[in-house]
Amino acid sequence: MVATIGNHVPEHMHNPSSPPTDGTSAIEGQGEVQGIEKLTNSKTRQYKDDPMEACHLLEDAFRETLRQRWQMITWKECWLMANEGGDYRVRKVTNREQDKLYLSGDVDWLRYTMMLPWTLSVGAALSGLLPAALAECDRGALLKFADSYVAAQENGQVTDLENIADNFTYVENNRTREITSGILFNALVIDHRRTIADTTECATFTELVVTRNASGMPAPYVIGTQIRHSPGDLSCYLIDSIVTTEGHWLFNVTGTLYWVRRENWGTIPEAERDSRETLKAAADAYLSMWNDKSAIDAVPWGTPCARLEGGMYTGNGGPDDSCKVGIPTNNNQAPNSHRRYVIDETVGSISVLCIFEHLENAPDSHEFRLEKGKVRYIHTMTVARNGIPIIPSRPRIRGTNPLLG
């Protein structure tokens, strides 16, 4: 047996018109699914020994066609698992649940909102369950909240944040904590700020560079923050930050500030923009180099390309700058896992927060800028000192939460 999710299917999945019995909401309405019908049971059966490959194959189609939303529910990810009988199930999750899975490492498939048998074709199975697509999240609203986040950091007052969800979670360096005990409760002068917005996933990523606090005292920080919103009311349910300071991996706030002010992360003409899939593939290839040698050739290296790692810069602003400087030569290390993405095609940028497992689970942020399909800039923040994580590592035991507990 390759993998199983469990045998229970909520009753209302057998009969979608019947009321749910497990606290979830019955899906109503019709939705047209294009381009997925070709991924039939017979097509994906060839992947039954590699269910994750089949999942990735379907994920590409889902990201383009399953942007259907019903109230607060989103088809955020397709998880495809196969058992020895060749049957498949698609797992439907909410934004909030999936984000918790990213952080917790919960892979035992015990939590779900809905599952349905994989029969005939994907299109036939899903077309009766999907509502009409809603508009993308409003970019202006996402950026406005990001502005309030920056204001809260400047004032050290979390009360500046409005429209907070009831189940709001604050994560700092891959650990949940009270927001009043984190970096946001410190009034800091922002020397540099840049924000990208993902209108598909209702999320933003903000890069901050800080040299002093509101009193004028030295307070060096480089911060990367992903903020996630519910697609309905745009309430903020997650602020997820990587916070680096003196003593962290290659940290040099002066060097960071110098170089970020000289780079161009501006809007890319619409005709020249790369797709979400291209941006994600580039980021994933780069972050897979530590455990997969073939990923090196999969990265769309550009020239010039410069990487800002901590405060170290691999270039000098010249036409021959390269991001290949210092890439891993040992490609049999632990992977960079629990990746959380924010993608903004308008500026060719993708933010990925993750765990650097080969640095004993060090919290990490990587952001990439692509121009015409090639990597132009990379910014990294890693909460580690001389290859050792700042926070103590914890044993990863199945069924426990290695980050949030």
Distance between the termini: 31 Å
> Looking at CATH, which topology of the largest domain would you report?
Nuclear Transport Factor 2, Chain: A
The portion of residues assigned to helices is 10-25%
Order of helices and strands: HHHEEEEHEHHEEEEEEHHHEEEEEEEE
Level-2 CATH architecture of the largest domain: Roll
Major β-sheet strand ordering: 7-6-11-10-9-8
Question: What is the level 1 CATH name of the largest domain?
Answer: Alpha Beta
Please indicate the count of domains: 3
Low-confidence stretches: 1-48, 60-134, 391-405
Q: What would you call the quaternary organization?
A: single chain
Task: Assign an overall shape.
Answer: globular
Pick out its properties.
3 domains, alpha+beta, Nuclear Transport Factor 2, Chain: A, globular, six-stranded mixed beta sheet, 405 residues, disordered C terminus, disordered N terminus
Q: What does the model show?
A:
By secondary structure, the chain is an alpha+beta fold. It is built from nine helices and 19 strands. The chain is 20% helix and 31% strand. A six-stranded mixed beta sheet has the order 7-6-11-10-9-8, sandwiched between helices. A six-stranded mixed beta sheet has the order 13-12-17-16-15-14, with helices on both faces. The protein has a three-stranded antiparallel beta sheet with strand order 3-4-5. Strand 3 and strand 4 form a beta hairpin. The chain is globular and about 45 Å long.
Gist of the model:
The chain is an alpha+beta fold and 405 residues long.
